Design the sequence.
């Protein structure tokens, strides 16, 4: 059952998550170099949704870090940044590359992360006004191509276990005890969110 059944909206959480991931990527940019993002994206309505967005954003950052050094993605991001005429078409090409083998929670995380990295690139090349367009393009792609899949797969609440596994697989620690600790920590975040969701129904 998707989040709508308990008062949470998969659409609202997804849009807030896109903003959160992009915001997170822009935090290291110089103060004043990025436009305010708040009016451009929907805000979560309660503490439960806020916690879910925050936890998902952390997992997305871990999952997304593995594409950070992927030359093909970096070239695609550079291509979008340099092509002022057809950003939407270039963005769709990157998005379709991410999902060329189907939609998964991990690939959704990668797309959101790529949007965040693209926002950073636009600020670095002194086009901060384009960050607003990146949010709009990502939200539009999310609504048109991912929202129905998310709802059919139980909503964002069901993403935690898959993203937790993907997060752990991304970390290259040698010590198996460290693996166990991280997995238990991330799984605990997901379980805590699930328990909170159940209690507030």
Sequence:
């Amino acid at each position: 059952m998707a989040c709508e059944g308990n008062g949470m909206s998969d659409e609202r959480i997804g849009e807030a998550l896109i903003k959160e991931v992009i915001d997170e990527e822009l935090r290291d940019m110089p103060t004043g170099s990025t436009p305010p993002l708040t009016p451009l994206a929907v805000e979560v309505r309660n503490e439960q949704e806020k916690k879910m967005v925050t936890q998902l954003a952390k997992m997305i950052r871990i999952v997304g870090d593995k594409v950070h050094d992927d030359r093909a993605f970096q070239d695609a991001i550079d291509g979008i940044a340099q092509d002022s005429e057809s950003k939407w078409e270039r963005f769709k090409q990157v998005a379709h590359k991410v999902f060329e083998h189907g939609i998964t929670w991990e690939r959704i995380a990668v797309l959101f992360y790529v949007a965040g990295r693209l926002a950073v690139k636009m600020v670095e090349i002194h086009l901060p006004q384009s960050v607003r367009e990146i949010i709009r393009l990502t939200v539009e792609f999310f609504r048109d191509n991912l929202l129905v899949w998310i709802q059919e797969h139980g909503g964002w609440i069901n993403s935690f276990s898959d993203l937790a596994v993907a997060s752990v697989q991304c970390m290259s620690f040698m010590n198996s005890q460290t693996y166990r600790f991280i997995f238990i920590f991330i799984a605990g975040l997901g379980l805590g969110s699930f328990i909170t969701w159940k209690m507030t129904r």
Q: What stands out?
A: The chain has one domain: 3-199. The helical segments are 10-26, 47-64, 71-82, 87-98, 105-124, 130-152, 159-170, 176-199. The domain at 3-199 is CATH 1.10.437.10 (Apoptosis Regulator Bcl-x).
